[in-house]
Specification:
alpha/beta; TIM Barrel; eight-stranded parallel beta barrel; 14 helices
Length: about 375
């Protein structure tokens, strides 16, 4: 009997203990906080990931399930199962649902740009196919997906256009065309151009030029997506801030931080040489398999905290911050650029706790 009373008291105390405030509430009025979700989270088999997602985040993006190759294994043949689940999952948990991505050179339906003989299709055919795909997907979720990454990663760091199949067939026009098709399919939907390394001056220059060109032609574009896959040694935070402001000053557009993560591991700039033992190379690529040293953790927290402070300072431009994954264990960085690493790039650790740099906000 005594034991039962004691247990009940413990449970009651736990239920009444003040919980840390939710991140999404702390940043309300500044920006929307979202996370990319994977299949386990969408299917609700990852219950721990989901509970931290529901508690701290107000928006979602799909890590993979809306990309063309995922949703349309062969041109015109759709498999909606996971994509439908994704949208319903967000709605049923009160999360803002975002779409990623309509036109991308990677994870692309293999025959999107080819005819039956394996030749590149003509510009007219590709325009028609792009319209068909974009209209099909955007109108299926019309009024339910709040904003779409219409085109992903079309500009290179040197400011040139990526020599993708879309570019080879249609030239620069494939971008405005994609935006036009998306707008026609859902006139109320927000439309974004999304890319990595937006702190590269030549790249941002071209992106801004492309966005202004669309604005002058009356084609809807709402914001630029800065993917923000950061490292401990790049990019420079002041430069990043000045580029975010440049977008606003030169185009009036907002910025979304769309795929935020910061690898805690050393940036790999070399490959193994023959004189190296397997163990020595392992040590280079995955130096802390059993836990990151405290000073490295501290440096990561300081740097991520400085980025967050900077985003808050620029909350008049930054309308959404989206982490690329819910917790460290989910991150693509554990397998890229080299498989088998143990990274810790997100705001929530493998233990599902908030990283220390957030404590000052959730006190
Ligand atoms: C790019 C894409 C994302 C994702 C990441 C890696 O940034 O935009 O969809 O594939 O690479 O996970």
């Amino acid at each position: 009997m005594k034991r039962t009373v004691f247990l009940a008291a413990v449970l009651l105390a736990a239920a009444c203990a003040p919980k840390e405030p939710a991140l999404k509430d702390v940043f309300k009025g500044k920006f929307v906080l979202g996370a990319a979700v994977n299949a386990g989270q969408i299917r609700e088999t990852d219950t721990r990931g989901d509970s931290v997602l529901f508690r701290h985040f107000g928006a979602i993006e799909p890590e993979n399930c809306l990309k063309s190759a995922e949703i349309m294994p062969a041109f015109g043949q759709y498999n909606w199962t996971l994509a439908d689940q994704y949208v319903a999952f967000g709605e049923s948990h009160g999360l803002d649902v975002y779409g990623h991505c309509l036109i991308w050179h990677s994870q692309l339906t293999p025959d999107f740009c080819f005819d039956k003989e394996g030749n590149l299709v003509s510009p007219e055919v590709l325009k028609e196919r792009m319209k068909q795909h974009i209209t099909t997907v955007v109108s299926r979720y019309k009024g339910r997906i709040k904003g779409w990454d219409v085109v992903n990663e079309a500009i290179m760091e040197d400011g040139s256009y990526r020599n993708s199949l879309f570019y080879r067939i249609l030239g620069e026009e494939f971008i405005p065309w994609a935006f036009q098709c998306a707008h026609e399919a859902d006139p109320d939907c927000e439309l974004y151009y999304n890319d990595y390394s937006m702190h590269e001056p030549a790249k941002l220059e071209t992106v801004i030029k492309m966005a202004k060109d669309m604005q002058e032609r009356g084609i809807r574009i709402d914001a630029l997506g800065f993917q923000a896959h950061l490292g401990m040694d790049y990019p420079d935070i002041d430069l990043y801030e000045s580029f975010i402001r440049r977008v606003k000053d030169e185009t009036g557009l907002d910025v979304c931080i769309t795929e935020l993560d910061m690898s805690i591991l050393p940036t790999i700039t070399r490959s193994a040489d023959v004189s190296m033992t397997r163990e020595a190379w392992e040590q280079v690529i995955n130096p802390w398999p059993d836990g990151v040293p405290a000073d490295v953790q501290e440096a990561w927290n300081a740097r991520m905290g400085a980025f967050l402070d900077m985003f808050i300072r620029n909350a008049d431009v930054v309308r959404r911050i989206n982490l690329w994954g819910v917790s460290d264990g989910d991150s693509w960085k554990n397998g890229w650029p080299i498989p088998g690493r143990k990274d810790a790039p997100l705001w929530i650790g493998r233990d599902y706790n908030l990283k220390p740099f957030l404590h000052k906000y959730v006190r």
